[in-house]
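Researcher: We're teaching a course module on how sequence relates to structure. For the next exercise, students receive a sequence and then see the predicted structure as C-alpha cells, so they can try to spot secondary structure elements on their own. Here is the exercise chain.
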Amino acid sequence: MLKRLLIAAAIFGLVPLSMTGAAWAHGPSRQKVVESIEINAPADKVWAVIGNFQDASWIPAVAKTEGKGGNDVGATRKLTLQNGGTIEEALDKYDAEEKSYGYEITKVDVKVLPINDYSSHITVTANGDKTTVEWKGAFYRGYMLNDPPPELSDEVANKAITDLYTSTLAALKKKIEGGS
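Model: And here is the predicted structure for the students to work with:
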C-alpha cells in the first residue's frame, strides 16, 4: 500500500521518483537456451557416455577434466578447454535412475565464456530404441551492468551457449551412432 502511495505521489510531483523504489534500468535479464537431439541408440548407451559428471570428454571443446566427489551432489570439476581456458563447475542434482543431472559454473572468465551465473540441466530420455538428450541452460550475459560492451551482450552470450550445445549434441550423436 505504501509503495502505491509513493508512486502516486511521484506522479503528482510530491515525492521524488527515487523514493518510490521504481527503477528505469534494471541490468541484464536471465537468458535461457534449450537444445535437444535424437540419437539412434538406447538411453543406457547414451547415459554411459554422458552420465559421469567427472568425465566431460564427450564435449569437444574440453581437453581435460579434473574433479572430485564423483556424482555426489556438491562434486566439483575443472574443465580445461582446447583453447587453454578453464571452467569450474559444481554438481547440484544427480539422478542416475532418471538419467539427469544439474550443475552450475562456479568460476569462469568472461573472455573464456561470456556469461555469468550459469546453471544447466541435462536429461536423457528413452523413446523406444532411440534417445532424446535435452540440455537446458540459464545464465546472464558477461556484463552485469547496463550498456554492455558488444562482446559481453545478451546476443553474444546466447550465441555462445547455443553454439556450445548444438555442436556438442551433434558430436555426441555422431560419436554414439558411429560407434567411436
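Model: If you want an answer key for the exercise: The longest strand covers residues 115-127. The two ends are 64 Å apart (CA to CA).
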